[in-house]
Write a structure and sequence with these properties.
The chain is of the alpha+beta class and 397 residues long. It is built from 16 helices and 7 strands. The strands form 2 sheets. The protein has a 4-stranded antiparallel sheet with strand order 1-2-3-4. A 3-stranded antiparallel sheet has the order 5-6-7. A hairpin with a 2-residue loop joins strand 3 and strand 4.
Amino acid sequence: MTRLTKTIVDKIPIPPLTAKGKHAQSFVRDTTLPGFGLRITSGGTKTFIVETRINRRVKRITLGRYGVLTCEEARKEAQKLLGTIAKGGNPVHEKQHKDRHSVTLQIAFNDYLSTRKTLKSGTIQDYKRCIEGSLSNWLPKRITDIDKDMIEKRHSDLGKASPARANNTMRVLRAVFNHALEKYEDSSGNSILPLNPVNRLSRNRGWFRVNKKRSLIKPHQLKPWYEATCQLNREVTRDYLHFLLLTGLRRTEAATLTWPQVDLKDKTFTLLDTKNNQPHTLPLSDYLIELLERRLHQKINQWVFPSPLTDSYLKEPRTAVSRVSDLSGVEFRLHDLRRTFITIAESLDIPGYALKQLINHKNTSDVTAGYIVINAERLRVPMQQITDYILEKVNHG
């Protein structure tokens, strides 16, 4: 007979690794208490277990590690568990029910992020600012305890400071709850959440109305803006701002551009990490070729626009933007340069499909667009037209 005691457990040998170098495990059963046993792994871990039939299926339940539990403590836990099962209880389902119903917002949010494989680092940071920033005191709360009234009040409170931030926070939270509705189920296969509480905002039309920003640099402002950029102390920042204006790129797309993505011989550059996750090749206008050739002579690492302070790419130059605004009298943000590029392109009557390709917009509702293939060479003329227009305004106002 084998009764698990400290003396016995200490002497149990550790199983060797398998022939393929993988971990193995062995079991020692206590014959004085059927169902009670010890699992030993080749990593040296010894864990008390209970093995018994529940609903005609053999289930193995972990009690705890030897060392954390003594043999006698583990035996008492096993007796209690086996007694519950003998009376018709199902501790496996009870534990799953307890675990699932104790899912906190922090756990649900982490699970949501882990399943969204295509999220970009910038998007993840935005989501974290919404959930971990605006809802920090909710993170330890169980998601089943976050109700519609709480949602409505927090949305209203956040909206007093920033309606846009309030809406964005609740949109991210809605996505987290939608994910939770599918992921966390009880023992019957039903969701632990009866509904998505954020949906009350839609049913009650409670979302704040936030007008899209329409700010851009107007044609008569291009000359003073450009002249102000030329007074910046750092050439890399000046070139970065010019590149944004003359390509219409998103700020991160331009900032993270590397030299292997630039083909000066072919007069093109290729974006790899785009918003729609598709590589995108664009032509370079004459001015941009000169700008990049000059930058190439100053190359210090892989980045076309390297940070002067770190061995990385140029982060958002807020100080430079503020200085250009002060010098020129033209208030702007980096995304305004993209809006300026698009507005100029539309004013030049550049075909819609060409413009969508230049700014890498995908129109999923337009069936015809799926049959039109526009390569970089066909975009060269419109790209040069936009550059010529901007330079004309810069030089002659």
